[in-house]
């Protein structure tokens, strides 16, 4: 369990800092990539252990490597970085560290993307990938009580790949090896030149098997990709979706059908799809009544954490504490937790907000 003696509601008295406010809020993370969560020290250690030589060898060089020229450059670096993941132990370590890092931020539940195909295509036995991530998930749960679930993700736009085959394989992996850990199917990576309708059959098969549909769309391409994700992939939520604002009819659809967008502001800045915090569309999406939550995406690669995203929302996006608390509650509502677990978490969030207000008197 997270230690609540310092950050819990009871500890606050007097003015409450933004950090104290954010730390006291029990949080849910809905959009974070496992492979994009490798800590710098872990990337360096695994690269050394497996003698992967096209990876920077110091933390400073790694930080420079993570200065992305644009979204495609980000994807290139991402596909190179994952080469350090070679065996079951690597995946167990990554899953455990990622979950523990979230637990340390008072995150209680997370739905985490990972992309089995990009490991299988490098020759990592797929059984080892799943055994590893499941082991790490169990270890983190035993240590902290954090509950994580997987969204297996189809890598959109792999250079030279037959996308339908990649999609079919990903669904097959998820349904064969996923056990109880996998709750959803996604598609990520490139959007431009990767029309979503080609994934309709794969998504239908996954949904048939009980998985939720959580595609990326409207991050690097426009409203069309979001429409396609709703109409052809049966999207339960949309990863990013910020370009939905290009089309008022789509905004209306998201609002009335309550299709949530999982928004990651710092990611959008670091991949160059949004210029700066001041022009980030999250406040507009909230004002339009679109269901949204706040997420970290690929935290070490983007120099952020979920905690930082909440702080940026307060300080750089101009959102009030009340609105930020609503975003935290929205993440609970938009998650695939059971209704009673949602109720319990929402009650804890309300208690944390009330305690912060009471402390300030
Ligand atoms: O912010 C993101 N947007 C889109 N795709 C992403 C992002 N972060 C990681 N990926 C990953 O890039 C893979 C391609 O090989 C995708 O499958 C996806 O998991």
As for the number of domains, it is: 1
Give the helix/strand class.
Answer: alpha/beta
- How many extended strands? 9
- Low-confidence stretches are 1-6
The CATH architecture assignment turns out to be Alpha-Beta Barrel
CATH class: Alpha Beta
Ligand catalogue: inosine
**Overall mean confidence score, pLDDT:** 96
State Rg: 19 Å
Helical content stands at 40-55%
CATH superfamily: Metal-dependent hydrolases
Shape assignment: globular
**What is the spatial order of strands in the main beta sheet?**
1-2-3-4-5
CATH topology: TIM Barrel
Write the H/E string, N to C: HHEHHHHEHHEHEHEEHEHEHHEHHHH
The rounded distance between the terminal residues' Cα atoms is 29 Å
Q: In this structure, how is the largest beta sheet organized?
A: 5 strands, parallel
Q: What would you note in describing this structure?
A:
With 361 residues, the protein is of the alpha/beta class. It has a single domain, classed as Alpha-Beta Barrel (TIM Barrel). 52% of the residues lie in helices and 13% in strands. It has 18 helices and nine strands. The protein has a five-stranded parallel sheet with strand order 1-2-3-4-5. A four-stranded parallel sheet has the order 6-7-8-9. Helix 12 links the parallel strand 7 and strand 8. The protein is globular, with a radius of gyration of 19 Å. Mean pLDDT is 96; it is low at 1-6.
Features:
metal ion binding; four-stranded parallel β-sheet; hydrolase; binds inosine; zinc; hydrolase activity, acting on carbon-nitrogen (but not peptide) bonds, in cyclic amidines; single chain; TIM Barrel; metal-binding; 361 residues; 52% helix
